[in-house]
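Kindly review both lines to help learners:
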Amino acid sequence: MIHNSSYFENLENNPRDPSHWHALFLDNSVPFHKDAKAAFLFDSNRKSKQFLLPFLRVFGRLTIIILQIFKAIAPNLINAPKTLHRFLYWGMKYWVSPEANFLILRHFYLGSEVLRFIKDNVEGAEEIPMNPLKPLSFEAVKDNLFLEHDLNLYNFIINLNKAIQERGLSIKPVLDPNFQAIGAQPIPFEPFRDKWTNMLDLASAIEIFTPVYQFFLTDNDFWRASNSLQLDEVIGVYAATIMQCPEKLVALNNKHPMIPLPTYGAGFRLVLHGLSTEVLHHLISQEKQKKQAV
């Protein structure tokens, strides 16, 4: 069972022992879909995050540094994306919590909608190719889902800006944005496995998966994937320009893509990437709701 907003809405506050997660759920200073926020906060309160993550983070970062030395010597010796994604499928299905899996698959869905929203609101960009990723089950992971997600982001930015330069297009404020790409209904995911082994929180799972990702890909693929996390700022600027709300970018924390950060911190930045996507998507969703209410 995935814990949704009703879990926190029905919590009673103990003034002598208030819940950190309850307080964050009730706070609306940062835009966030309420059910996704509930899943994120419930997952953050798992024992694995409090007691296991500190050790996993140290071990994961040391592993990344050791693998970086190996990859410097043999950067292309291992290139097995299919094997990687079969491992990710197995890990997600049997070891990761249902809330974390919900957030992971939802991330690809939201990312595709945000890119399509930007494309739909740049006049003349209709011919830019898109490859939307909208997984509804673990099976989609086997189709190189994570790798395709990185490629989609880079190819979108490259194709959009080539069109801007070659055809004189521009990203500019839109008085009446097209919100057709942004879904309003719950995503119909297949039920997530919820057994005793599904106990890893999102951050802990990512700290394990990140060095595995590095091991099975070429050095260039992993370096590109790590750097892609800082492109949150680029996508955020595009969307904020269209909606005329640059002040909302304060909620996006992966920034400065021209100054790449070390790969050993990729796990933490990947969690921030997921958070930023949720915030940006809900920001656009709120604007859509305002438009429909008029």
Q: What stands out?
A: DSSP finds eleven helices and no strands in the chain. The chain has one domain: 33-293.
